[in-house]
């Protein structure tokens, strides 16, 4: 009778050990799967972010050339405007300076 009780306890212990081992194996498999899924997700996110960055870079690079050209044209137009304005008023400025320099106040 004691021997069958011991045999039952040993069998139960063996069964419990198999259950624990199966649970460990399932846990390790799930952790490995989760790690692979996370790596895939990170890789996809990185690729997506890089593609978005490249699209923005291409979009702004094209605009950059256009912006430089536009700013160059605006700058040249402003320079011409200032030259015209200076030549228009230079005679008046010279006359005013001569008048003030040659006028003696007592």
From TrEMBL:
Keywords: Hydrogen ion transport, Ion transport, Transport, Vacuole. Pfam families: V-ATPase_G. It comes from the Eukaryota. GO terms for molecular function: ATP hydrolysis activity; proton-transporting ATPase activity, rotational mechanism. GO terms for cellular component: vacuolar proton-transporting V-type ATPase, V1 domain. The keyword Transport applies. InterPro entries: V-ATPase_G. Residues 32-68 are annotated as: Disordered. Subunit of the V1 complex of vacuolar(H+)-ATPase (V-ATPase), a multisubunit enzyme composed of a peripheral complex (V1) that hydrolyzes ATP and a membrane integral complex (V0) that translocates protons. V-ATPase is responsible for acidifying and maintaining the pH of intracellular compartments and in some cell types, is targeted to the plasma membrane, where it is responsible for acidifying the extracellular environment. Catalytic subunit of the peripheral V1 complex of vacuolar ATPase (V-ATPase). V-ATPase is responsible for acidifying a variety of intracellular compartments in eukaryotic cells. PANTHER family: V-TYPE PROTON ATPASE SUBUNIT G2 (PTHR12713:SF26), VACUOLAR ATP SYNTHASE SUBUNIT G (PTHR12713). This is V-type proton ATPase subunit G. It comes from Arabidopsis lyrata subsp. lyrata (Lyre-leaved rock-cress).
């Amino acid at each position: 009778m004691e021997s069958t009780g011991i045999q039952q306890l040993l069998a139960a212990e063996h069964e419990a050990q198999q259950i624990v081992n199966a649970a460990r194996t399932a846990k390790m498999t799930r952790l490995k799967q989760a790690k692979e899924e996370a790596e895939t997700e990170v890789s996809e996110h990185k690729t997506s972010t890089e593609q978005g960055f490249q699209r923005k870079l291409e979009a702004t690079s094209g605009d950059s050339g256009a912006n430089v050209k536009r700013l160059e044209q605006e700058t040249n137009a402003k320079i011409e405007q200032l030259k015209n304005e200076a030549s228009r008023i230079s005679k008046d400025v010279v006359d005013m300076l001569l008048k003030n320099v040659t006028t003696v106040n007592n």
